[in-house]
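Morning F.,

Quick status update on the modeling queue. The single chain you submitted on Monday has been processed. Sequence for confirmation:
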Amino acid sequence: MEANFLSVTRGNGVERASSFSMEKPSILQVPIEVRRRNSVPTSAFMTDFSEAPLERVRSFSITPKGLRNRGDKIRRKSTLSIETNSSYQSNTSLQEIESRNTGCNNSNDSLHPMERFTVAVIGSDGVGMNTLKRQFTTSEELCINNCDSVDNEEEVCVCLDGEECLLSFVKEEDFMIPGFQSAVDTVLVIFSVIDAQSYKSASRKLQSIRQELHFDRPVFLVANKVDLARTRVVSEKEARKLADKYKCKYVETSVVLNHNIDELLVGIVRQVRYQQEGCSISSSTESISKNRNKVAKFTNILLDKIMNIGHKEIPCTNLFDV
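Structure tokens below.
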């Protein structure tokens, strides 16, 4: 056994050979420079992602106990474009991380454009239209005086039950342009409960929207400044009667107290989605109704009556249901 560790040299006696003097096998050598290959084409990274503008996404979920605010998240607006016209796509890996924190599933954003809804905001001067739109953009603070940096009062991104959409707000002047009403998904008619003239103006505008413009999409009658209860001149009963007359949803809000702001925002998304789903269902039903026999027609009439039972009993203040 000692022969493996000792070597004999002529005239110099015996010396111990080091077992660590062996040359390392070349197979263990690792190249100094190894480039990592991209799994995504390099053209997708030409734009500096750190310079992309920020956007806020407000997240909500509707539970059996009511509306739950899941908080806001701030992210970069993606500049990637993968066979879509939407500029509000986010990096896939970033979406996966954010979805764990907010419960929003954005994995399909790279394949499908985000839903976009147009909301017309109508009202007299001084009723709080601008402050209401600013308060829509955040749940972290009251945007009464200003709302800088990330937030843009003309649009807000909402994630409801894992599905994102972008709400864009337009003014009354734009809504009144002939032919522009077809591009609007819903209308907010706002008045102040301490200003009787703003209520009368809202009544005239509702009449014009429903009877003259024949706008058959969701309309919300918003009674703002309910925190000023001592100087209130428009009662809730009177305002709800007006909303029922023109088949509107009615809600009382206070930007100062952040009262019913989130409920109104989520109600807008829900009502627009209900409207779009109803249109698609009715159009598909009409295309095949001519070929149905008498039994099928009787069955459909019976089902319609069952589905509409109690429909009139749903109050106009229920923003989340039809």
